[in-house]
Sequence to fold (915 residues):
Amino acid sequence: MITAIRRTPPLPLAALAFTVAGLITLPLLYVSYLALSSDFSVWRRLWETRIPELLSNTASLAAGVAAGSLVLGVTLAWLIVRFDFFGRRVWEWALILPLAMPTYVLAYVYTHLLGSGGPVEQAWQALVGPEGRVLSAQSYAGATLVMTLDTFPFVYLLSRAALLNLNVSFEEVARACGVSRLSTLFRVTLPLMRPAIVAGLSLVILYVVSDFGAVSLLRYQTLTYAVYQQITGRYDQAAASVLSLLLVLFALIFLVTERWFRQRSRFYQTTGPYRAPERKPCGPLGTVLVTAYLALVFGCAFAIPALLLIQWSVASVAQGTLDARFVGFIWNSALLSGLAATFGVLVGTPLAYLANRWPSRLNVLCLQAAYAGYVLPGPVGALALLVLFSHLAPFWYGSVMILIIAYIVHFLPAGLQSMEPALQQVAPNLEEVGRSLGLGLFRTIQKVTLPLVRNGFIAAWVLMFLQSIKELPATLLLRPVGFDTLAVRVWLEASEEYYQLAAPSALLIVLLTLPALMLLVSKDWRAA
Amino acid sequence: MVPDLKSPEQCRKPDEAVAKGRPNEEASSIVLELRKVTCAYEAERPAISDISLCARKGEILCLLGPSGCGKTTTLRVIAGFEPVSGGEVYLEDQMVSAAGLLVPTEQRRVGMVFQEYALFPHLRVAENIAFGLRHLSADQRTTQVHAMLAMTGLIGFERRYPHELSGGQQQRVALARALAQKPVILLLDEPFSNLDPDMTGKMRQDLHDLLRRTNTTAILVTHDHDEAFAMADRIAVLNNGCLEQFDSPEAIYHMPSTPFVADFVGQADFIPGVVENGKVVTEIGEFPNQVGYQGGAKVVVMIRPDDIHVVPAENCTARILARQFRGSENLYTIGLPSGHVVHSSEVSTNVYPVGTRVALKVIATHTVLFEQDKIQHQVAISPPSTR
Fold:
């Protein structure tokens, strides 16, 4: 990375960056402080009653989903990369679509599908008689199923990238050493994919642990759900913060694991000419089996829920739900998310710029602090802000600003991940030329840097906008009275089992998320 | 006399020129044989066609040629990574490849060293070397690994990971891994192209010594003719998928059988001449008509820079056009009145300035002649204009 000649950054920029970094880490620090300073009896009570159950629930859900997404993600990536069959390119792209479904949408669809009297039970009873029962969605199995279907694309994407980047000479050398093909798979190919697989699984676990939408609709008690209940049900901030601290520690472990394994995969790239592995063409029987498997997974994870949503939306619209109130919800969502994305980009720019041009320990630390949002699951972040503002700035309590701040804290990492690479691509020489031609620092940034990083910043804005639209727990906790967003409507109506009513909002969220998904994967789509 | 390349029987006769460094001249056993092998990815454009060659035990062969000539394809055919569409490949008298037959690589006992070494990044050096030794007991494995490490000079590196090694060390680990399973034949694909140029000289010497000590049969692929001359007992020159000449390095340099080979392995100039009275008459002198062309035939004589000696002389028509200093020698470019150009190599203590008129003395001990129309297609003649 080229660094600027100027040794120290200009003071206003540095001051701005430090302030922002400080503000972002403040919630996390305050929650930790609150948890550690609360009365020991709170800890003991929780420890004896709820924590063991919550920990074991969260851990077993994480383990189950990790196992499921491992199997699905790796096998699907293997089939897509190593074989050639009719429709392969379409499937390759289609398998990412489940990421467009927020977990709470998938959860509520499955509550209907697997519920008593629902279509799956009816079909099963047609086969085995009126006594037949299917698994209920509101159970461990149901929660695992829903979360697995929603998160396996993480493992799929990372495994696919690892397989595409695998130089075929590793496998050829193994064969030249006398090792059979099957043995090569286990001793060479899978170990070389290991960093990518582990990074994917860490992402999955992070997602599961911090999820609120699905577990709340499926009534599965995890730590995150418990934090929410403590805040809303009992107004017990001390207990909530204790649970939050545990949650943050849990999440931190997996965040660190994911980073470490992504670093390790650096060593697994070969220099020299890269040759892609061959694809084996599938015979007709093979094509049928593979297509059946892919269709099953895609159907359960995206197609069937999407079709249901469309069907319900049509019925709902026919009954006249698209009234002014509905438009109001859309406006609320758009306004909140737009403001959050705009302020987010404004806030993130000095951080990213500072760490990029003057990468001293302190500046890089500021940037890393911004990533703290990753370990703040929705309710925890909301709790932190609630507590902070009610103690320090009560006049803002109950306003939209606090919600926007919550969005920024939570989604800034996603935005930074687009802004950082964009800044890294702009050589400082260009800015130095601008300075030598007489422009001051800020004018240089405006005239030289910004036009070049525009695309990355637009991508950051779009990503933050779309993440904010889907956001649920912080919105539920912090929104002003009567200020509902689309996500909130889906959740409220689904909790009451008004499936049809919730469908248009859910469908709109899914449709809005699709472009973000395309943006996210288009950047590194064709790795080879 | 130019040997007939295409018959496999030629391969099997002991070659006197191959007796470099080996006292016995009896025919050692044939380890590898290719008979008219053709490999085609598409039907109309074969990557290699009608390649026939053989390798004896302990011999070091080189496949030499420009990019895209098919040398790597030939290597991969021998290894078993590519199927053949015509001809046969024999390893130790067993047919391993033919149209419709492909013995898998893992059953062939060939050792392979890739250009980028392909060391398993998730395994340590010792584990990399022991990779193909699962069928041995743990003790035997340790002994064999230790022996390999000693042979390649890597004792002490057992627990390192590949990314902690230098390029030269990585190459030695790749070599040790390939040799650990005592392969029938060792295949190396441009093994020195990833190293610093100042390292390659020593690495070549080390590799050569190692292969001789272990009496390993090896096939090296390279585009560098210096490397081929230094390492190989016999060289196969390929061009556009066809085998142009398969001979010892000396024969290839001094008696190239096609103009392409002549031009590829060193500086070569082609001077036209006419056969008259049993001699070939050219503008720089007369050459013996060794090939026996008919009187009046138009031929072209191949001249190497070391075949011509220049002496400054005021009354001559040839002039020095350029001089290139190369340390031990000066390479002069000399323009002839007809417009053709020859090169001459002289010791660097004599320096003749550009523009000097010189007389040319031919000191070639043999003549390499080609028919003139063959030249047009194969090598571009330097155009008769001043450079």
